[in-house]
Amino acid sequence: MENTDQILDAPQVENMRLQYAGFWIRTGAYLIDTIIIYAVNFVIGYGLSDLLYEVPALITVIGLGVGICYFAFMESSQYQATLGKMAVGIKVGDQDGDQIGIANAIGRYFGKMISGLLLGIGFMMVGWDEKCQGIHDKLANTYVFYSR
Known about the structure:
Low-confidence stretches: 9-15
Structural class: mainly alpha
Number of helices: 8
Strand content: 5-15%
Largest sheet: 2 strands, antiparallel
Number of domains: 1
Strand order of the largest sheet: 1-2
Helix content: 55-70%
Number of strands: 2
């Protein structure tokens, strides 16, 4: 009887494995997110145009704040995904696929800056890494996977 139980449980264990999201699907999600972030920054910039004319550095500060809020809050939420990730059916989580904390999501966001500063190699790593992790994922110990 034990052998029968083990055989019946095998497909359930297989279904619990994460299927990591590769480079191109993540690039598509990021393009969607970039459009959303651009639109939000445009609206804020338009509303604060007089102030931004006097203090041009404020544009950078606002853009950074919008990016942190969008990516960190969305990826650490119950959805585990930005709107772009939701659109393509992928999520961010820990090694078990569980929700990450806000501090971890903020660290992942700043890790993306490192990935980009290294001539984009930190992002390209997703294409050849065994678990499809970029430098920002490795630094934050996060994984991007297809929604179950």
